[in-house]
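Narrative of activities, Objective 1.

The group set out to show that a structural description can be obtained from nothing but a protein's sequence at a throughput compatible with the screening campaign. Below is one input-output pair from the validation batch, recorded exactly as produced.
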Amino acid sequence: MRTVIVALVLALATAPAAAAQTPSMAALAEARTRVGAPDVISPYGADPLQIGHLRLPEGQGPFPVVVLIHGGCWSAAYDDVTGMGPLAEALTARGVATWNLAYRRLGDAGGGWPGTFEDVGAGIDHVRVLAGDHPLDLTRVVVAGHSAGAHLALWGASRPALADARFGADPLRPMAVVPIDGPGTLAGFIGIDAMACGRPVIVPFMGGTPQDLPEPYRIASPQDQLPFGVRQLVVQAEFAPLMQPYVAAAQASGDAVETVVLEGADHFDPIVPGRPYGDRVVEAIVELVGDR
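Output recorded for this entry:
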């Protein structure tokens, strides 16, 4: 594990400064300007941030559904629901409904532990409500997230193993989960988060250290809940060294784990459709929902 962390630290140390815009960040920003309005904006809770954007393909359905969870260092200071808009549109154009979640984070009232996790659970389970009004196939639900959203997507898939009613009395079990370039555990990211995010975020997000809050950290770390009994497609780019211990643990647990390794990709490349890395991710997800 030490070798993996050192490799990631070196990668981050040689990456552009957080304030500098990489080509993939510029491409994502441009792609976001071209994203149209969702077909439906639906609340899954009472807070203004407890909403999601539903996009529906053309046709009669029922359609497979990808629940998308954006990243942004678990913090309201960074990205928001629009960050996954380009990926949502690209998937919907390929016949896949997308449910793109907003949720409370560090800096939002009620965000952090446990509010963010309550939101993610409620947002995923809201797909059942949406299916009452729209032609969605509940047997083909995939949860996908990027960066911090990768951690939250894995956590969402781990909920049946948690058996914790705070996060859903009857959790929707997805057919698969797709973490895109993000961690599968929180405690191991402490220290790295200050370099990746520009400041420490995990301890403020959780409200204390792992030593202070061992049980919340255990619940919040998908790697501690393995196996999920859910197929996993792990997309690795700039954070590949960070993800490798999770992949090894998931494979050792007996879960069906596939990997897509995007050699040479930076952290945002996988969520920019219209460019080679982003198109590869779109294709992989489309193949996944079509493979039962």
